[in-house]
């Protein structure tokens, strides 16, 4: 059987386009909203240290494995995993990898869009100076009012999804990669400026103490699971998005170095976001466990108190929305690529279909922030369940399947071939990490709650 060596949708122009597009898919609301909320709720340093540990030992190897699958399979995640399972002569059950991924992508896109929509809402309110001189309490009140209004949330959620559909329907190369090359550097620059402001206005010492002074005893199984989930979520791995990206990889390029750069960029952005948000959190006496409010209170407060804050803050949130947009595109890509390649949908129609499904699920998610906030099960709202199941269970499960498939099922020559003549040591190190560290670690952590539930 011959594999499709050229994806039907073209290849990346250059390796930098590939890095920019991949980093664009990785960097997003997850680095701002989710990283700060999780670090705040899970005791700061205990979470951050475990998270960094997983990034290097688990997420990077799995990211490389995922791109290897994509560049070997040269197709959407479902078709790629079907093809590769056949090539490796293993059970066709392995296509579950692709199906689970599309499901996870759809679930995440739904509530991700609600959060990114909040980002868009802030472009408007900051540009028009609504936070000028407000106290932190007033900014918090404004945010709670926004959360309490389903119509507002639905409006911004719809706008965000419409933008994602627009970009996805124009095609990968043209729509997104070009944009990421410009947006990412600008975003990092603006973020550094916010950190400097935050250093002046806030309590940087308390923030650093909170984020980096680490104690072994503080680690709990919940923190470990949350850190693992975030290490997958933030790199956009475990759902086939990065497979789709690998599928557009030009032949003959080595991936390990390029993907390490992606991990570095994403980690730097998350830590910078922490250093931008937490100094304000501590100087304003906001509880670190507040949740999404952390970023949406601390940052607008800061922009309301610096000179030309409306302009600068408006620009900042515009870039945040654009960065979120490229992540939204990555979330939609697996399912859309499948509909286009397998079901022969037109790209626009495929994007509309996935967009509509995510929109409906997103409406349910946003209603659970207000009208249905008392619909809870085991102390989690619908919104939180969607997030918990997709980020903490589906993504690690997808990552586990990817690690086992590439590490233990694909033929060694095939894997090595996709690695493209990279220095032997790097290949051996990666392969070893994937087989003996990443796969067992994820398996163990996923079984942990099960074990505790049984005894
Ligand atoms: N990694 C993105 C972020 O940090 C979110 C995402 C997850 C995007 C999974 C695509 C797939 O914002
Ligand atoms: Na990220």
UniProtKB/TrEMBL annotation:
Among CDD domains, the record links this protein to: SLC6sbd_Tyt1-Like
Among InterPro entries, the record links this protein to: Na/ntran_symport, SNS_sf, YocR/YhdH-like
Return the PROSITE patterns for the record: NA_NEUROTRAN_SYMP_3 (PS50267)
Keyword Thylakoid assigned to the entry: answer is no
Q: How does it sit in the membrane?
A: Multi-pass membrane protein
Keyword Transmembrane helix on entry:
yes
Record keywords, A-Z: Membrane, Transmembrane, Transmembrane helix, Transport
Q: Where are the transmembrane segments?
A: 12-33, 45-69, 90-112, 153-172, 179-197, 223-248, 255-282, 311-336, 348-369, 389-408, 429-451
Q: Where in the cell is it found?
A: Membrane
Family annotation (Pfam families)? SNF
**What GO CC terms are in its UniProt record?**
membrane
Highest rank taxon of the organism: Bacteria
Q: What name is this protein filed under?
A: Sodium-dependent transporter
